[in-house]
């Protein structure tokens, strides 16, 4: 596939001019063709599709901040990596959810009851441990000490709870 | 392991409403724990932590659930295969290698798979048309599990699952139907047409598409988001099934009236094969059992209990045969043991 002269995206506008027996060719992607003032005429479906693919390619480079999953990986295995993926890739996932759930995108069924005290503490510990790991690796020792104290407090309350 | 698969089977029960057409009803809920990646992105320690948290449902002193916790790595391969054949676990759970477990009711009708595609898959299976009952079973388990852990939940998408096809309620209700009448009168298309507009999926027994054995078909809801659990269950039990059961019964009556010789030939030929064969493949055995089942429902045979046939439809699978005969069997030996077991149970 021919790529755009100005970037690496696929070219959808091709211009060939012969002046004094010299061939001049220009290949532009949709965005650069519009920038150059080229009239692309009526909407060409292939352009729309390639634009969607492009959007997907751009999004696929984005990774979920919690689990590192990318859309390219999701497309391979059809499974997301964690709950945060739904927020991270909402733009791409909504049309898929629409399709598989017959245009339903709002839950109306049962809602869980309150979070248990035990698990809430457990989740806090996990979050603090992650932060502590990152603080130590970045040599932010003051922050690490504060986090360690917070963890100690949580562990103590855990012991107290168990007793 | 305290449970006894030989004695405990939901299909031993006398209670199987509409059991002539509906073999079994099943409900499943998919759930994930908040604060953990889904199983496919989990580390070994994540999986162990999830399993440890969920195991509390079995260790609580006052738990009314009476589930037995089984670490899948400690379950022998034959019992594991047998659990797959009983739909207590999926083959995916049986074949995976990461830390995973099953909590199972001693009656072997309720189970909680841990670290399958989702952290938790709650299931219940009962004989006949008992969709409301299996819905109650899984809801009770769901509420009890929720007391010890917190589910990943989103106000818009409901219970969050690894695959968007399970989002929302995470609920899948299904029935296994025996439809020989509609197949013989060539009216199965009517069932497919009835399911249109109800967002139901129809597939053959243990297969994709329309191909099946023994005229068994599984029907389940396709949607999980945008409808309540009750509505999803009711579409199947109150809207789809009543006319289908009636059509199947009418088709059977028509066959008995218009083609009695053909029906008797099919029924007694099947008995003849099962009484005399010394090697039976699962397909041949299942098809014969299906034909005998039709004969029993139409009173052409009165000395075989339909429950014997229903049990055999489970007990003749390789995992069950290997479990019963307690050793590694080759495919040829399994086919031979299958014929032995059927002759024994039919009193041949």
Q: Determine the structural class of chain B based on helices, strands and strand pairing.
A: alpha+beta
SSE class of chain A: mainly alpha
Structure summary, number of beta strands of chain A: 2
Strand content of chain B: 15-25%
Unreliable spans of chain A are: 39-52
Mean pLDDT of chain A: 74
| Rg over CA atoms of chain B | 21 Å
Largest sheet of chain A: 2 strands, antiparallel
Order of strands across the main sheet of chain A: 1-2
Calculate the terminal CA-CA distance of chain A, rounded to whole Å: 69 Å
Percentage of residues assigned to helices of chain A: 40-55%
Question: How large is the share of residues in beta strands of chain A?
Answer: 5-15%
Quaternary structure type? heterodimer
List strands and helices in order, with pairings.
The complex is a heterodimer of chains A (163) and B (348).
Chain A: E1 13-19, E2 22-28, H1 30-35, H2 45-60, H3 71-77, H4 83-88, H5 90-100, H6 117-137, H7 141-162
Antiparallel strand pairs in A: 1-2
Chain B: E1 22-31, H1 44-54, H2 56-59, E2 68-71, H3 77-85, H4 91-95, E3 101-104, E4 110-114, E5 120-127, H5 131-148, E6 153-154, E7 158-159, E8 171-178, H6 180-184, H7 188-195, E9 200-204, E10 216-221, H8 229-258, H9 260-276, H10 282-297, H11 306-315, H12 318-325, H13 331-346
Antiparallel strand pairs in B: 1-5, 1-8, 2-3, 3-4, 4-5, 6-7, 8-10, 9-10
Features:
heterodimer; A: 163 residues; mainly alpha; two-stranded antiparallel ribbon; 55% helix; B: 348 residues; alpha+beta; eight-stranded antiparallel sheet; two-stranded antiparallel sheet; 13 helices; 10 strands; globular
Please, could you describe this protein's structure?
The complex is a heterodimer of chains A (163) and B (348). Chain A has 163 residues and is mainly α. Chain A has helices at 30-35, 45-60, 71-77, 83-88, 90-100, 117-137, 141-162, and strands at residues 13-19, 22-28. Chain A has a two-stranded antiparallel sheet with strand order 1-2. In chain A, helix 6 (117-137) runs antiparallel to helix 7. Chain A starts with 12 loop residues before the first strand and ends with a helix. In chain A, 17% of the residues are buried. With 348 residues, chain B is an alpha+beta fold. In chain B, 45% of the residues lie in helices and 16% in strands. Chain B has 13 helices and ten strands. In chain B, the strands form two sheets. In chain B, strands 2-3-4-5-1-8-10-9 form an eight-stranded antiparallel β-sheet, covered by helices on one side. A two-stranded antiparallel ribbon of chain B has the order 6-7. In chain B, a hairpin with a 3-residue loop joins strand 6 and strand 7. The two termini of chain B are 33 Å apart. The relative contact order of chain B is 0.13. The chains are: A mainly alpha (163), B alpha+beta (348).
């Amino acid at each position: 596939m021919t790529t755009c002269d100005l970037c690496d995206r696929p070219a959808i506008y091709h211009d060939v001019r012969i002046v004094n027996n010299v061939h001049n060719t220009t290949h532009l992607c949709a965005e650069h063709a519009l920038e150059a003032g080229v009239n692309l005429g009526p909407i060409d479906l292939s352009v729309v599709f390639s634009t969607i693919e492009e959007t997907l390619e751009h999004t696929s480079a984005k990774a979920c901040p919690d689990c590192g999953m990318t859309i390219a990986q999701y497309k391979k295995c059809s499974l997301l990596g964690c709950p945060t993926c739904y927020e991270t890739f909402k733009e791409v996932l909504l049309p898929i959810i629409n399709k598989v759930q017959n245009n339903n995108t709002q839950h109306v069924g049962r809602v869980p009851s309150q979070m248990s005290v035990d698990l809430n503490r457990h989740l806090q510990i996990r979050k603090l441990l992650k932060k502590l790991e990152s603080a130590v690796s970045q040599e932010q020792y003051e922050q690490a000490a504060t986090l360690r104290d917070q963890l100690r407090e949580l562990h103590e309350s855990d012991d107290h709870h168990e007793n | 392991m305290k449970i006894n698969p030989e004695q405990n089977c939901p299909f031993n029960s006398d209670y199987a409403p509409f059991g002539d057409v509906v073999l079994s009803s099943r409900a499943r809920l998919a759930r994930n724990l908040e604060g953990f990646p889904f199983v496919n992105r989990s580390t070994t320690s994540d999986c162990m932590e999830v399993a440890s948290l969920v195991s509390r449902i079995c260790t609580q002193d006052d738990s009314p659930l009476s589930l037995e916790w089984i670490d899948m790595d400690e379950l022998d391969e034959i019992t594991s295969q047998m659990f797959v054949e009983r739909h207590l676990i999926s083959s995916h759970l049986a074949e995976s290698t990461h830390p995973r477990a099953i909590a199972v009711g001693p009656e072997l009708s309720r189970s909680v798979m841990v670290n399958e595609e989702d952290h938790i898959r709650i299931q219940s299976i009962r004989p006949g048309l008992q969709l409301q009952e299996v819905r109650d079973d899984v809801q009770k388990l769901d509420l009890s599990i929720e007391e010890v852990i917190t589910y990943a939940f989103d106000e818009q998408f409901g219970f969050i699952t690894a695959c968007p096809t399970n989002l929302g309620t995470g609920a899948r209700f299904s029935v296994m139907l025996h439809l020989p009448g509609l197949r013989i009168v060539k009216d199965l298309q009517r069932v497919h047409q009835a399911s249109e507009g109800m967002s139901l999926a129809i597939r053959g027994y243990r297969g994709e598409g329309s191909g099946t054995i023994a005229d068994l078909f599984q029907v389940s809801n396709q949607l999980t988001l945008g409808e309540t659990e009750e509505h999803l269950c009711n579409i199947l039990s109150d809207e789809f099934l009543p006319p289908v059961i009636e059509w199947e019964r009418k088709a059977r009556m028509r066959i008995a009236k218009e083609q009695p010789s053909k029906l008797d030939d099919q029924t007694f030929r099947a008995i003849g094969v099962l009484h005399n064969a010394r090697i039976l493949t699962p397909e041949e055995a299942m098809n014969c059992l299906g034909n005998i089942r039709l004969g029993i429902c139409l009173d052409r045979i009165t000395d075989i209990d339909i429950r014997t046939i229903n049990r055999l439809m489970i007990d003749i699978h390789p995992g069950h045969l290997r479990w019963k005969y307690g050793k590694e069997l080759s495919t040829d030996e399994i086919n031979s043991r299958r014929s032995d077991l059927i002759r024994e149970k039919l009193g041949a």
